[in-house]
Design a protein that fits this description.
The protein contains 13 helices and no strands. It is mainly α. It has a single domain, classed as Growth Hormone, Chain: A.
């Protein structure tokens, strides 16, 4: 394999990381949520005229649309390539935040954040990981997948304080317009660096792993029908639903929970949770390459279950330090899911129809 091809693989990995860093604004919803709630309670002609019970609706719809959009994005990037697919994602996210900047109405935010931005997150995220994995051997699947998706988890580290600063100084409408422009430029610009390997390219596989066992390789490149008929697909789907669902429940509410004990510094809890989120993606990827995907997944799901039970007394305790520690560990466990399941998919069904 030539040096140029090796460099191309790292280029794609870094581009995917950068795209996910921009798209990770999803996890800063709790910052927007706090500002919307304050606006509703304050009232006035320019306030958000929403019901308090409907505040989470745009986020919930966004997560749902995100999930379905990734399916469409996978098929799309298999047909037209990852660059064009990510470009569509950047345009959709920018359009969604532009709609949000034009109105405080419930419908505008459901359409802007829920439908348009949610679709954009799905297209951008769905296009970032597959091309990166195709450039590297199976012995690096976990670490490459973890590196690419770490950007999405790490994003709130800068988005949370940035969004808080913009909201405090410019208000909601200008903030969402600034973010619309910034995300569209970054995602669309980096999309052109996402390229698949040339046809017939096979990454160099080590003959043996460090433990002396043959390196794992997919037996065949499955199509969608073969994958859906496999019992492994449904087992993975259920495990992913449980693991990611638990994390998303906490991510969307962590700032609101932290506000009771941390006040205006609640964004710190969001940022620390994001560090745990990103760390879980990288650590789980490296660990799964060493001890196997199944063993790593068992460890992470077990740890996540313990953290969810621990959340019951900790949330009610009012302790800021305990809440931050809890958030970081839940973020860590949640992030591991986003690395492990793409790696499982490559191991089981190959890369030809990976999107």
């Amino acid at each position: 394999m030539s040096e140029a091809i090796k460099n191309r693989g790292m280029q794609v990995t870094m581009a995917g990381l950068g795209i996910n860093l921009a798209l990770g604004v999803l996890y800063a919803w709790s910052i927007f949520k706090g500002a919307i709630k304050a606006s509703i309670e304050k009232g006035g002609p320019d306030a958000f005229n929403w019901s308090l019970t409907s505040i989470n609706d745009p986020y919930a719809i966004c997560c749902l649309v995100f999930a379905f959009a990734m399916v469409a994005a996978g098929k799309c990037q298999d047909k037209i390539g990852p660059a064009r697919t990510a470009l569509i994602g950047g345009i959709l996210v920018g359009s969604g935040f532009t709609v949000m900047s034009m109105s405080n109405s419930y419908a505008a935010w459901v359409i802007g954040f829920g439908v348009l931005a949610g679709s954009g997150f799905g297209f951008g995220y769905g296009a970032a990981t597959p091309p990166a994995l195709k450039w590297f051997s199976s012995t690096k699947t976990g670490v490459i997948a973890g590196t690419v998706v770490a950007g999405f988890g790490l994003a709130p580290v800068y988005i949370a304080p940035l969004a808080s600063y913009l909201l405090n100084n410019y208000g909601m409408q200008k903030t969402t317009m600034f973010l619309a422009i910034g995300f569209a430029v970054v995602v669309c610009g980096l999309s052109f660096l996402l390229v698949n390997p040339p046809q017939g390219f096979v990454p160099e596989e080590p003959a043996k792993k460090d433990d002396g066992k043959p390196a794992a390789k997919p037996v065949y490149n499955a199509n969608v029908g073969e994958m859906i008929r496999s019992p492994k697909f449904y087992l993975l789907w259920v495990n992913f639903f449980i693991g990611s669902g638990a994390g998303l429940m906490v991510i969307g509410s962590v700032a609101g929970l932290a506000k009771k004990s941390m006040g205006p510094m609640a964004f710190v809890a969001v940022a620390i949770m994001a560090i745990g989120n990103a760390g879980g993606r990288v650590v789980a990827g490296v660990l799964s390459d060493k001890i196997g995907r199944k063993a790593t997944l068992s460890i992470m799901l077990g740890m996540q279950a313990l953290m969810m039970f621990a959340a019951i007394p900790i949330v009610g305790s009012g302790s800021a330090s305990l809440l931050v520690v809890l958030a970081s560990f839940i973020g860590f466990c949640y992030g591991s899911n986003l690395c492990l399941f793409p790696s499982f998919a490559k191991d089981y069904w190959g890369t030809k129809n990976y999107g």
